[in-house]
Design brief:
Elements: H1 7-24, E1 28-30, H2 39-54, E2 62-65, H3 67-76, H4 83-98, E3 111-117, E4 127-131, H5 137-145, H6 148-165, H7 171-185, H8 195-213, H9 221-235, H10 239-248, E5 256-262, E6 273-280, E7 287-295, H11 299-304, E8 310-311, H12 315-318, H13 320-337, E9 341-348, E10 351-359, H14 364-376, H15 382-387, H16 391-397, E11 401-402, E12 409-413, E13 415-418, E14 421-427, H17 430-438, E15 443-447, H18 455-460, E16 463-466, H19 474-482, E17 485-488, E18 494-496, E19 501-503, E20 509-511, E21 515-519, E22 524-527, E23 532-533, H20 536-541, H21 551-569, E24 573-577, H22 581-589, E25 595-599, H23 609-617, H24 621-645, E26 650-654, H25 667-679, H26 685-697, H27 709-714, H28 718-735, E27 741-746, H29 752-773, E28 780-785, H30 788-792, H31 794-797, E29 803-806, H32 808-816, H33 820-826, H34 828-833, H35 850-864, E30 869-872, H36 880-889, E31 893-896, H37 901-920
Parallel strand pairs: 14-15, 15-16, 16-17, 24-25, 24-31, 25-26, 26-27, 27-28, 28-29, 29-30, 30-31
Antiparallel strand pairs: 1-2, 2-5, 3-4, 3-5, 6-7, 6-9, 7-8, 9-10, 11-23, 12-22, 13-17, 14-21, 18-19, 19-20, 21-22
Helix pairs in contact: 5-6, 6-8, 7-8, 14-21, 16-37, 21-37, 22-24, 23-24, 24-28, 25-26, 28-29, 36-37
Length: 921
């Protein structure tokens, strides 16, 4: 029996429940409260700091403000009302734990305020170190540490970082003042500046803040922290962060967490330092001691690459105790995370502190090597190894490399930070890199060191070269993440960005616009263009290389093992888009399981084009039949070669589907020719007749005109000639003991009636060939689904089709109303920059629009014909993300260009493995 309640009471109850819900929201977590599974809430950095704390590793105490707080701030412009009190409570607890107060004059607690999104976005968002220093507390820090220089160095760093990131002061102003201070002292590195020099620099920095920001540098430590927290929130939506997210396909609505961590100092002298370490080489995947270390420095110095580091292995000689402890921790973390770990650490007067760990970014080759190594070590199984690599990485491994036998002029050598062979014109700033690349130029971006503001230039460039920094510098980390060739720390090369040139040893000068080549696998830099040779991975797929002992063979061996597993578990078959025997044979070597699209219009180019032109323009049946008689044996010969190359595998032949203008004379050119002839009074009757016919058939939008099935229905005998050529070729191959498996595909069908007419004619021709040759043929007939109406009426079309192949290129054009030939060059760049597209819908399938039509057509088609064979033959068939979608909706195969077949095979395996893992969970 229901209870009648006063509506006001019900309203109060709802209000109380809402208040209780708000009260239950927790916006701040101590490092002791989280774990690595809370990345959505605590971000990657916060979750991993908590995980290391749980493992008992030496992590400075601190707390994390959640991504939910950030999302609330970004939505409303204000922090959640509860946030300040929660931060205060956690700050109080931190102060008690540390035995000191934030920014107190005598013995100050200092903290860092660092961003930390769910997905690593190196250098894209804000970080501020040394929060809590002021004119009063700097003396307390000097007393506490016994080092005046350290205290004033820390204070100038705070003002510089806070001014740039929080108060939006031009960072170059601080850099110029620092350079001026070094010049006045006649030193080249900032560690040679003494306390008195740094004190003067602090005064200068504060004046810069006052002038540029219109306010004094804040002296209240809590105000510093609150403003820094807000700045980190806002940095989620900076242009560089949004650009990086678009590049890496990171969702824009995740927000960032903020980590408040008690400071530990690597700039306390020679027994202190900071570094970044990898549990394996992120460039090659090899096991060993990899990373960078910098004495008497803070962490940002390493990442920024402003001073060249020493190899991590040197730490063993500098501080054996810390080195041994670090090696033990690295082993613990790799075993715990079961993957390559990227670690940031600081040593404060001999005490090791862990500041961050994450699963490290790696090159494509390293990804494959590491995955198989971890299987061999028993840390992961083959299914997990398959998920540790992806098709984009495999595609990178298939790119060419430099020819080691070529005559070259080496300019210098740096650190091999991200592999590849990149050639382009030297440019020395991001603006020029973008401008030139948009004009079609290939460029190499050359900088002393990169910073987050260079991101758009890095994206535009073929490769990046820096004279400073190591494998853990900003340039190296970002380039590896993007799969971009990068050489860092080429110290012997002097980069002058103002004069826009570099000077190599021996006085060789490279000016802006000169061509250079960089090898991200060896670190070598060359003048001019170095020729390239095929990748060993491509040679492996083509059967010209086998796994062995050297480095290239080791990589091939890793690729082979993972591909073999992907082939074992995948459900989707992979076919090729190929129009001739040569492409078909190459596709077969690459692992194609048939041809999913043979475009017959490509067979009519060159000298055959004139025959098709005569066929289309023919006025009389006799003229048309003569053209068809000439084309038939040529078509049959094409198909015999194709069926022989793909013997035993299906070959889907699409009947002629050209936009009509491709086979007609150019109307402008023909008009000029006729006009000139008339002016000379020697006009050609054939040209006049031809011009009239072209005018009659001219279309404003040929892609939506007389093509595909429409052309076959309007020009009698065209499709039946092609069907006869296919049937006779199949009969000839069968008579020669071959196993042809031809499938005839009718293009651009919009209604079942079109398909029924063509099917009836095709079946009659096949029956005639069977009777004439005495060979029984099993040819299936199907259609392309490339128009929205075809997808919407798939249940009807399936009554007359034995298979569907989704032509997602045309389907995307017709769903969006885009002409691919025009829009990609005209406004797609603006759409991508504005975030309307995360990626071009011609590159990755639009799941919400085009994908919905595909999904619905699959269901409707199979409801009519349960054994309906389903595939896709648009370029999406080789796109990694799209392959997962096609697996999910239940297609039988994908078809793509031969070069993309290995990528599709790998992703089909990953999709099946991922799906199986999800089912088990």
């Amino acid at each position: 029996m229901s209870e009648n309640k006063d509506p006001h009471v019900a309203q109060n109850d709802a209000s109380d429940a809402s208040d209780a819900s708000r009260a239950a929201v927790k916006f701040v977590y101590d490092f002791t409260e989280g774990n690595r599974n809370l990345k959505d809430l605590l971000g990657g950095k916060g979750a991993n700091l908590a995980e290391m704390t749980n493992l008992g590793l030496p992590v400075p105490p601190g707390f994390t403000i959640t991504t939910e707080a950030c999302k609330t701030y970004l939505a409303s412009g204000e922090e959640p009302v509860e946030l300040r009190d929660e931060v205060s409570a956690h700050l109080d607890a931190l102060e008690k734990k540390m035995g000191k107060k934030l920014g107190q004059p005598n013995d100050p607690l200092l903290v860092s305020v660092r961003s930390g999104a769910k997905f690593s976005m190196p250098g894209m968002m804000d970080t501020v170190l040394n929060i809590g220093l002021s004119d009063k507390s700097v003396s307390g820090l000097a007393k506490q540490s016994g080092d005046d220089r350290f205290a004033w160095d820390s204070y100038r760093r705070l003002i510089q970082m806070f001014g740039k990131t929080v108060l939006d002061v031009d960072g170059e102003l601080f850099e110029d003042a620092l350079e001026a201070a070094k010049a006045a002292k006649k030193v080249t590195v900032d560690t040679d500046l003494e306390a008195a020099d740094l004190k003067k620099l602090v005064t200068k920095f504060k004046k810069i803040v006052k002038t540029e920001a219109g306010r004094d540098f804040p002296q209240d430590p809590r105000e510093q922290m609150d403003l820094a927290i807000r700045s980190v929130f806002e940095s989620w939506n900076t242009d560089r962060a949004k650009l990086y997210r678009r590049q890496e396909r990171i969702p824009g609505d995740l927000g960032t967490a903020v980590n408040i961590c008690s400071m530990v100092f690597g700039n306390l002298g020679p027994d202190s330092g900071t570094g970044v370490a990898f549990t394996r080489d992120p460039a090659s995947g090899h096991q060993g001691v990899y990373g960078d270390y910098l004495q008497n420095a803070q962490g940002e110095d390493v990442v920024a690459g402003i001073r060249n580091t020493v190899p991590l292995a040197d730490l063993e000689q500098i501080d054996k105790k810390s080195y041994d402890q670090l090696m033990q921790i690295m082993e613990t973390l790799e075993t715990h995370y079961k993957d390559l770990c990227d670690i940031e650490f600081t040593i404060e007067r001999g005490q090791l502190w862990m500041l961050q760990t994450r699963v490290g970014k790696r090159t494509a080759g390293a990804a494959f090597r590491i995955a198989t190594q971890l299987v061999d070590q028993g840390l992961i199984d083959e299914a997990e190894a398959l998920q540790r690599v992806n098709g984009a990485q495999l595609a990178q491994l298939m790119f060419p490399r430099f020819d080691e036998t070529a005559k070259v002029e080496q300019l210098g050598r740096g650190i091999a930070a991200s592999p590849g062979a990149a050639v382009g014109k030297a440019v020395f700033d991001s603006y020029t890199a973008i401008k030139w690349s948009r004009s079609g130029e290939k460029v190499i971006l050359i900088r002393r060191e990169t910073n987050p503001d260079d991101l758009d230039g890095m994206i535009a460039a073929e490769g990046i070269l820096t004279s400073r920094g190591g494998k853990t510098s900003h340039a190296a980390v970002v380039a590896r993440g993007m799969g971009k060739t990068c050489v860092c720390g080429a110290e012997e090369i002097e980069v002058d960005t103002k004069r826009r040139c570099l000077t190599a040893p021996g006085g060789v000068v490279i000016e802006e616009g000169d061509v250079v080549s960089i090898d991200g696998s060896t670190g070598k830099v060359y003048a001019g263009e170095v020729p390239v040779v095929p990748s060993p991975v491509v040679e492996y797929f083509e059967g010209r290389m086998h796994a062995g002992a050297d480095d290239a063979d080791e990589l091939v061996g890793a690729v082979h093992r993972i591909m073999a597993y992907a082939d074992r578990v995948r459900r989707l078959r992979v076919r090729a888009n190929a129009d001739n025997a040569e492409d078909a044979l190459r596709a077969r070597r690459f692992g194609a399981q048939g041809i999913g699209l043979c475009r017959t219009e490509h067979m009519f180019l060159g000298e055959r084009r004139e025959m098709v032109e005569r066929l289309i323009l023919a006025d009389a049946d006799e003229e048309r039949e003569k053209a068809l008689e000439q084309l038939l044996p040529l078509q049959k010969s094409d198909f015999v070669e194709l069926f022989e190359a793909m013997d035993g595998l299906p070959v889907t032949v699409r009947l002629l589907d050209p936009p009509l203008h491709e086979f007609l004379p150019d109307i402008t050119e023909l008009s000029v020719r006729v006009a000139l002839a008339e002016s000379r009074k020697d006009s050609n009757e054939n040209d006049l007749r031809l011009l009239q016919a072209v005018h009659r058939l001219h279309e404003q939008n040929p892609m939506l005109g007389l093509r595909g099935v429409r052309l076959g229905l309007v020009i009698p005998g065209l499709f039946t000639m092609q069907v006869r050529a296919i049937a006779e070729a199949a009969a000839e191959r069968k008579s020669a003991k071959g196993d042809p498996r031809a499938e005839i595909m009718i293009p651009l069908v919009g209604t079942v009636q079109e398909l029924e007419i063509v099917r009836e004619e095709a079946e009659q021709v096949i029956a005639e060939v069977e009777e004439t040759t005495g060979v029984e043929l099993k040819l299936s007939l199907g259609t392309m689904i490339e128009l929205p109406r075809a997808a919407l009426t798939a249940d009807q079309i399936a009554e007359a089709a034995e298979f569907f192949s989704f032509g997602t290129n045309d389907l995307t054009q017709t769903v969006w109303g885009f002409s691919r030939d025009d829009v990609e060059a005209s406004f797609f760049t603006a759409y991508l920059e504005k975030g309307i597209f995360g990626v071009s819908p011609f590159e990755t399938i639009d799941k919400d629009g085009v994908g919905k039509l595909v999904r619905d057509a699959v269901a409707a088609g199979r409801a009519t014909r349960p054994d309906l064979k389903l595939g896709v033959c648009g370029e999406h068939g080789g796109d990694p993300e799209s392959v997962h979608f096609f697996h999910e909706v239940g297609l039988d195969y994908v078809s793509c260009s031969p070069f993309r077949i290995p990528v599709a095979r790998l992703e089909a395996g990953r999709a099946a493995s991922e799906s199986a893992g999800s089912d088990h969970r």
